Amino acid sequence: MAKVIVYSSAHCPYCVMAKQLLERKGVKYDEIRVDLDPSKREEMMKKSQQRTVPQIFINNKAIGGYTDLVAIDRSKELDSLLAQS
Hints:
Glutaredoxin, 4 strands, electron transport
């Protein structure tokens, strides 16, 4: 199973939707709350070159945010990404 990391914040509806999509697929993920630790926001920005949450990583590859995750899912690529380890 792939290693999935979701950088998120508490009051972010896109974060909630991204986590729900992953949960529907039965994916376990590590959540990093950038609103609780400013150094984690800096870490996220360095890794993704993005400032907004969510930022999703699968096996250390930057996937992007919620809309990117949905697009990958609709293109049927998400399942194969998640199957890699």
